Amino acid sequence: MVCILASYYGTGSSILSALQDLFWLSKSKLEKQLQIISVLQWVLTFLIMGVACTLILMYILCTDCWVIAALYLAWLVFDWNTPKKGGRRSQWVRNWTIWRYFRDYFPIRLVKTHNLLTTRNYIFGYHPHGIMGLGAFCNFSTEATGVGQKFPGIRPYLATLAGNFRMPILRDYLMSGGICPVNRDSIDYILSKNGTGNAIIIVVGGAAESLNCTPGKNSVTLRHRKGFVKLALRHGADLVPVYSFGENEVYEQVIFEEGSWGRWVQKKFQKHIGFAPCIFHGRGLFSSNSWGLLPYSKPITTVVGEPITIPKIDNPSQREVDFYHSIYVDSLIKLFDKYKSKFGLPESEVLEVN
C-alpha cells in the first residue's frame, strides 16, 4: 500500500513538474513571438507606412467616407509646421509595452557614462547609422531602455528625414515618440525656443554611412560632416558622442563598390531624395535560418559618452568649427576604444573614420 501511494504521489509530482515545464515553455515561446511581432511592426512602419497611409487616404477620398479624409487633410494643413516646433510627443506612446518586447528581441541596452545638466542643451552624435538605426530609435524614441530615468530632466529628440513628416499618419506616429525633422528650422527652434534640457540626436553619417554598414565592420562617416558642430556652436549646445556597438550586426547588406552601377544609383537617390536604397536581408519571420526582413537578434549596446562643453558663437568661423570637430572625433574614438572589449570586440579593433 505504501509503495502504491509513493508511486501515486511520485507520478503526480512528475505530471505536475511536466505541466510546469510545459507552461514555462509556452510562456517563453509566447514572449519570443511577441518580440518578433513588435520588431516586425516597426520594420513595416519604417519601410511602407508612409506610402501605405497616403494611398489609403487617397482611396477614402473616393468613397462615401470622403468627409473623414477631407477633415484630416484640413487639419494636416493647419498642423503642418508642428514638427518644426518640437513636435507633439506622447509619454503614453513612448511607454508602450510593445517597445519592451522590441528591446528584448535583440536585446538593446543604453549605457550612461556621465550625468547631463538640465541647464544645458545637447546635440548627440549617434554612430553608426546601420540599416535602420534600431538602437537610436529604441533608446531615444521610447522609454524601453530607461532614457528618462538615466538622464532625468533631459528631453531626447531623435532627428530623421524631413520627408517623413510630409506623410499623413506617419508624421503623427513619429512625433508621438519625440522624433523631429533633421533640418535647421526644427533644430534651431528646439535649441533656442524650447528652454533647456533638450537633447537632439543626429545620426551624423546618414544615408552615406548606411551604404557601407556590414557585420564585423566598425566605420563612421564623419571626417567631413561638420554641420552639426556649427549648429552646436551657434546655440552653445554641448556635443555628446554616442556609439552603438552591434548596430551593424543585425542585417546583411550587398555592398556596391565605388564606381559600380549599383553605387551610382544609390548616390543618385541619396542626392535627390535624401535616402539611399540598400539591398539587405535579415532573418525570416518563422525561421532564423531563412532570409527575410526581420533583423537578426544580436545585442546592440548604445554608449552615451562624456559631453564636450561648447561655447555660444553666433557666427563661428571655419577654424572654430574645425577645432571643435577635431575634439569631437577624438572623443568618439576614445569612447570606442574604452568600451570595445567590454562589448565583444578585440583590443586590436580600430574605429575607421571616413
Automatic annotation (TrEMBL):
It catalyses: all-trans-retinol + an acyl-CoA = an all-trans-retinyl ester + CoA; 2-(9Z-octadecenoyl)-glycerol + hexadecanoyl-CoA = 1-hexadecanoyl-2-(9Z-octadecenoyl)-sn-glycerol + CoA; 1,3-di-(9Z-octadecenoyl)-glycerol + (9Z)-octadecenoyl-CoA = 1,2,3-tri-(9Z-octadecenoyl)-glycerol + CoA; 2-(9Z-octadecenoyl)-glycerol + (9Z)-octadecenoyl-CoA = 1,2-di-(9Z-octadecenoyl)-sn-glycerol + CoA. One of its GO terms (cellular component) is lipid droplet. It holds the Pfam family DAGAT. Keywords: Acyltransferase, Cytoplasm, Endoplasmic reticulum, Glycerol metabolism, Lipid biosynthesis, Lipid droplet, Lipid metabolism, Membrane, Transferase, Transmembrane, Transmembrane helix. It comes from the Eukaryota. GO terms for biological process: diacylglycerol metabolic process; glycerol metabolic process; triglyceride biosynthetic process. Its EC number is 2.3.1.-. The keyword Transcription does not apply. It is found in: Cytoplasm, Perinuclear region; Endoplasmic reticulum membrane; Lipid droplet. Its main location: cytoplasm. GO terms for molecular function: diacylglycerol O-acyltransferase activity; retinol O-fatty-acyltransferase activity. The chain crosses the membrane at residues 6-25, 37-60. Pathway: Lipid metabolism; Glycerolipid metabolism; triacylglycerol biosynthesis. InterPro entries: DAGAT (IPR007130). The keyword Acyltransferase applies. It is a multi-pass membrane protein. Belongs to the diacylglycerol acyltransferase family. This is Acyltransferase. The gene is DGAT2.
